Amino acid sequence: MSKAKASSEKSASASSRTISLLSQLEKINLDSVLGESDNARYITSKILHLVQSQEKTRKEMTSKGCTGIEVILSTLENTRDPQTILNILNILIEIVSVGGGRRASVLVTKGGTQILLQLLLTSSKASPPNEELMVLLHTLLAKIGPKDKKIGMKARINGVLNISLNLVKHNLQNHRLVLPCLQVLRVYSTNSVNAVSLGKNGVVELMFKIIGPFSKRNTSLMKVALDTLAALLKSKTNARRAVDRGYVQVLITIYVDWHHHDSRHRYMLIRKGVLQCIKSVTNIKLGRKAFLDANGMKILYNTSQECLAVRTLDPLVNISSLIMRKCFPKNRLPLPTIKSAFHFQLPVIPASGPVAQLYNLPPDVDDVVDESDDNDDAETESEIETEIDDDKDQHFKNEDIETDINKLKPRQELGRPIEELKMYEQFFPELSENFQEWDLVSKEPKPFVPDANLSGPIVVPTASEEHSTETNISAKGVALKECNPLLTEEYNKRPVFLELPKRENMKGSSLHQQNDQRNMLPSCQCLSQEIVKGLDRISLQNSAKNDQYYGTGCVVKKESKANNTTLACSKPCEHVSPCGGSLFEGSSVQLGKLCCTGVDSEEEEDSRSSSSGEHTMLQVSDVSPVHDCDLYLEMVKNTKSIPEYSEVAYPDYFGHIPPPFKEPILERRYGVQRTKICQDIERLIYQNDIIDRVVYDLDNLSCSVPEKADVLKFNSKFESGNLRKVIQIRKNEYDLILNSDINSNHYHQWFYFEVSGMKTGTAYRFNIINCEKSNSQFNYGMQPLMYSVQEALRSQPCWIRVGTDICYYKNHFSRSSIAAGGQKGKSYYTITFTVTFQHKDDVCYFAYHYPYTYSTLKMHLRKLESMHNPQQIYFRQDVLCETLAGNSCPLVTITAMPESNYYEHISQFKNRPYIFLSARVHPGETNASWVMKGTLEYLMSNSPNAQSLRESYIFKIIPMLNPDGVINGNHRCSLSGEDLNRQWQNPNPDLHPTIYHAKGLLQYLAAIKRLPLVYCDYHGHSRKKNVFMYGCSIKETMWHTNVNAASCDLMEDPAYRALPKILSHTAPAFCMGSCSFVVEKSKESTARVVVWREIGVQRSYTMESTLCGCDQGKYKGLQIGTRELEEMGAKFCAGLLRLKRMSSPLEYNLPSSVLDIENELIESSCKVTRPWETQSSKKKKEDCKFEVCDVWDHNRNYEDLEHTLCTMPSLLGEDTAAVLCDVQGHSTAGKCCLPTDRSNAQQSGCVEREKYWESIFWGLGQDRNLEMARFPCQGQRQSQVAPGVQLEWVGEWNGVGLCGPAKAARAGQAPPLWCCTEELEKNSQGAGSFWRPHNA
């Protein structure tokens, strides 16, 4: 105890002594008396002793409020005594040597850099200069230099750049002096102007005198010299100088020498420094050429391979990999042109924009390869990559945020005369229908009768192209029966040819003619067809219920009094070039190749089932009743494509069932990207095993593939397919090139193709080499999708996530700057993945995401129409318009039929608010269609909640805004070559008909004063996880800018946050944290912003669904599938129902099913209390005039009470605030109250509402300029504030918002505050103040 006391006293004594010494030194500075140098020397020596021996002294001198640094620097600036200067420099070195960069920053902020540079200039004039002084000065400058961003400019202005350089030149053997001088030169060289200036004075040549071959002497000097040289060579001028003097070869030689001699890896930093120099010099084209000429690729490849075995040498391998990738010769894609392989002549050529540029490009522009000196070095250098999202954590680029208040304020503009908008009245018959002649009695659906005008037989070819004899037919049939007895009876029953002829052809046909035609087919085709037709039985053996839907192919078409209407373009389209007409007009429909090997043997089945046993089994539904194979073929016949597709992909024909197991996000194997890059580099260095053979080419249809067993066969000539060219690189490695969007030369990301002819147990590597986005979820656990026909024959027709060694990286292919729209050195990226197939000679399909074709949509709509109950559901399908290719764009209307044709029921029917939904404006975002499918199926379901939703709203839905893009396998554009989601401001009726008329529908609703309550456009997101929303808010946009002053006067209804907040509580895949409500300039022509700004829909959203998976909630760590996407579509509907309940007035007589939604669908932790069910609730309703929102989770928060969050609609509007009320089980039942002790939520005490009320806000985020709801409060007044004061969100008390002044909350100087401002009651004595509850 006495020792501790003595230590404390000693410390206090040292502190007081330091203060005393500093005071004396300050007095000396002020007096400036001659002869005081001895005293200054003595005092500084004493301070130096204290600083060297006491850490507390060092801390004290740099602490806030202490003037010690100012006194020391002032003395240094004024004194001329050499010893005092040396003492002060030593003091400063001691202070900044410990404590990290903070102390150095303190020294910089006090003006230390300028004083030291001035001292350096003064001291350099002495002849000879004081060596000790120069060592200390340079040591201190080297320590504080990295913390002063302007030190390079300061050194140049003060004229001290060459002082350090000259010291090195004249003292090369004096390592004690040269080392700190080199450190200062390294700091100076971070400024490009300084680097050029030093280079002109011979600094590059000087560095090569210091660095050299392997030596154990002076290694620290060697390391600093290399770091300095690497910084200098970042200047292009210095890099050219190094190349001209042959230093690239020297650097490679030095690296090899150190690599061979450093067998124990003790000098890895020196080897890394040499590589950094090579990396810097190869940033220019001349440096890369010199590197290749010096055989650098092979040398670095070999040395890096030798380092792979030692994990600590990974930095060397990574830098070597980066250098080799950079120096890999840039090549153009092996294509005749990067424009799409397909062409469509537009009816109108735009005057400007990307399409106009494309039409004006020179014919040889694709042959130009841009290898500019400003090589992009954006690739990550370490294997631990950070996920880079477009707008992660809502950190937006300020320059892209709209800051013009006038542009942000919604201005309802029709844009078209009302007379012109009347053309859309035909799409709203529900507003004029009186239902007097309608029979509202339930009718049974009628069976679907195939269109008699559809013609042509459906030919089902197989993988084999060999001609077979009848013997082969019977032999194959026996094999089939043995392999799959389930098909035996069906094989004998069903004909081997599906006949769907025209009626007139049927009259003249005979059985003999049909048999002749059947015999002309290859035998395998007949058998394969039986396998396909038998799949209906195989897939649905366990469900008799689904047989009636899926196996029969029946569709019921609702008979509607109103005829379907079509809007044509405003201008005639005679000059539009034909696009092939109907896909299968007068020709046969061919299904893709089908494996003829039957089902695998038992051994293979056992091995496959054991491997799949690792997956966790889930309960899954059977085949969706809305899929019908035969109906799909009927829909395909009317689909028009530019390439005139004549085949149907099996996954689209069979349908898809979600797999019965979870698919976790793939954990990326360490070093996989580096390994793949090394394999790519091997192509340039070792070419012995390179085949380089084209095996598939859309540009050369006569391309023949050798009939060899070891060559895979590819195909993409079917709806939504995208694969342009395939090159076999090695025996089991293929480069794949995607087709660009039609009338475009870019947008390569979506792929969908077929592979056949594989072997089992062989790892095949696929490289898609012309992707464009700079990053992808393939780097963060996403896998491509594969569909196996063999598995479909085993009753498992599903897309599954496959692939190992998956990564996404920049490759050596690039576009010219002209073709890239002015972007220099536009490089392509590679998606690479490896697949081992489970079945020999299988037919497999690969896709970027779950395919959903235009024909699939038409089939689903037809099935939904046939299966609904016309007494309950008002379902109408119109054709909004025709696309450029002549395909129809469907418009769907869904609501509930009126209960009767009485006036009250008809009036309620017509006055329902509209919900407007759209999807698939970007063809490659197929997940949007799956979400839309979930929405449509939920709306058409027979559940009470769906009926309540239909009774609440009228839904106008455009499920596919870009049919042409979807059909032709585009990723982002329509046939016009433009992104349709950037055309909403001024859509062209000839080029963008679907957008033009979709906007027209909304404009019509605005004109008749029937604005939609919600508009939502479904999208997919390629670089973020989870499902989230983008909305529009003026205030939140202003919060992300520096224009906060203007936003203080804005009044904005926060209702736009209600729906996303609801979804965050009800939909497990939805993430509120990823939502954004900022309006960016680059998004001003999107549907979301235009509908908000011009149409006036406050709740205008884009809902983005991940292509990868989730990193939060129920599905955390899992890749997303169609089940989850469809669930999201249903949850969206549930959210609309909950929104309706929240926004309804208290008197609105909602059915009980509405208030029970969580129990059936939402599956949230909250329950819903019916106000009219319990006596206590009734009392609360009568006394407090509040409406029940949610039951407080009493199991978590209280022991014996059940509390409810209640809103006050009459005072607060729709959904702004709530209070906590006790509804049962307590003496205060029925009174609005809060726990007395807010610091302990477990206590059950209650304070009645007469004492104070409390506010709970929906959707509050971080750093929000809150417009607080106003409540009378009673408590301890904290501070008077103006409305709109800057507040900070500091947490939640069981969901209740805690807010505080931003500065106080950050500094921890004040506890959280409940907020009370001025609007609710004018006579409230607490208006305009922050309040703290009694027991806060």
Describe the 3D structure:
The protein is α+β, with helices and mostly antiparallel strands and 1336 residues long. The chain is 39% helix and 13% strand. The chain has 51 helices and 31 strands. It has a 7-stranded mixed sheet, with helices on both faces. Strand 15 (873-882) and strand 16 (888-896) form a beta hairpin. Helix 19 runs antiparallel to helix 20 (314-327). The longest helix is centred in the N-terminal third of the chain and has 30 residues, at 2-31. It is globular. The two termini are 39 Å apart. Mean pLDDT is 74; it is low at 1-11, 374-397, 442-587, 595-623 and 1145-1336.
User: What's the gyration radius in Å?
Assistant: 37 Å
Given the structure, what is the number of helices?
A: 51
How are the strands of the largest sheet arranged?
15-16-18-17-19-21-20
Q: Major β-sheet, in short?
A: 7 strands, mixed
Low-confidence stretches: 1-11, 374-397, 442-587, 595-623, 1145-1336
Tell me briefly what this model is.
It contains 51 helices and 31 strands.
Features of the shown structure:
1336 residues, 7-stranded mixed beta sheet, 6-stranded mixed beta sheet, 51 helices, globular, disordered N terminus
Secondary-structure blueprint:
Layout: H1 2-31, H2 37-53, H3 55-61, H4 68-78, H5 82-97, H6 101-109, H7 112-124, H8 131-144, H9 151-158, H10 161-170, H11 175-188, H12 192-200, H13 203-210, H14 219-232, H15 236-244, H16 247-261, H17 268-281, H18 285-293, H19 296-307, H20 314-327, H21 354-359, H22 405-408, H23 418-421, E1 458-459, H24 470-483, H25 488-493, H26 503-507, H27 511-519, H28 523-539, H29 544-551, E2 589-591, H30 602-612, H31 629-636, E3 647-648, H32 650-654, H33 672-685, E4 693-697, E5 713-715, E6 725-730, E7 733-737, E8 752-756, E9 763-771, E10 785-788, H34 789-793, E11 799-801, E12 804-814, E13 827-836, E14 843-847, H35 854-867, E15 873-882, E16 888-896, H36 903-910, E17 914-919, H37 927-939, H38 944-952, E18 954-958, H39 963-967, H40 993-1007, E19 1014-1021, E20 1027-1030, H41 1034-1039, H42 1044-1047, H43 1058-1066, H44 1087-1095, E21 1099-1106, H45 1122-1143, H46 1152-1155, H47 1157-1162, H48 1175-1184, E22 1187-1191, H49 1194-1197, E23 1202-1207, H50 1209-1212, E24 1219-1224, E25 1233-1234, E26 1247-1248, E27 1276-1280, E28 1287-1293, E29 1296-1301, H51 1302-1307, ...
Parallel strand pairs: 1-2, 2-3, 7-9, 17-18, 17-19, 19-21
Antiparallel strand pairs: 4-6, 5-8, 6-7, 8-14, 9-13, 10-11, 10-14, 12-13, 15-16, 16-18, 20-21, 22-23, 23-24, 25-26, 27-31, 28-29, 30-31
Helix pairs in contact: 1-2, 1-4, 2-3, 2-5, 4-5, 5-8, 7-8, 7-9, 8-11, 10-11, 11-14, 13-14, 14-17, 16-17, 17-20, 19-20, 20-33, 24-28, 31-35, 37-45, 38-45, 43-45
Enzyme class: hydrolase
GO molecular function: metallocarboxypeptidase activity; tubulin binding; zinc ion binding
Keywords: Carboxypeptidase, Cytoplasm, Hydrolase, Metal-binding, Metalloprotease, Mitochondrion, Nucleus, Protease, Zinc
